[in-house]
Amino acid sequence: MLEDAWRSCGHSLIDLGGDEFTRGQPHPMIDHRLRNERMLQEAADPEVALILFDVVLGHGANPDPVGAMLPAIGDARTTAGRSGRQIAFVGFVCGTEADPQGLVRQSRALQEEGVILATSNAQAARTVAAMVSAHVQSD
């Protein structure tokens, strides 16, 4: 547990759907404002090199969740680039082609933005773990 859920520390995994983030506001699968703001906050931290996220499709979710995130991903890369850094994004889209948002369309948009896309949340976690391990070993 983070001492302050609003500030990352070390290698942090944050569930923006947790009660501390959704109390009094829509869940991030509906309203991406909190997720986008957090991405920009993390990108401004000189120690952040990787951001992992998921996208949930389906009825009741944002009608174009990836479209709502793409500007923040681009802005996060720009923010990191200003200080000579790059940020890797690893994502997973939870849904099917039968969902109103369309799995293929949402996935393709992330891939076109350079997001490393996993086929499951477990694969996304393993990908991030391998990236962190490789980075730690190279230091």
Describe this structure in words.
With 139 residues, the protein is an alpha/beta fold. It has a single domain (19-138), classed as Rossmann fold, CATH 3.40.50. It is built from 5 helices and 3 strands. The protein has helices at residues 19-22, 33-43, 65-82, 103-112, 121-138, and strands at 50-56, 88-94, 116-118. A 3-stranded parallel β-sheet has the order 1-2-3, sandwiched between helices. Helix 3 links the parallel strand 1 (50-56) and strand 2 (88-94). Helix 2 (33-43) runs parallel beside helix 3 (65-82). The longest helix has 18 residues, at 65-82. The radius of gyration is 15 Å and the shape is globular.
Notable traits:
12% strand, alpha/beta, 3-stranded parallel sheet, Rossmann fold
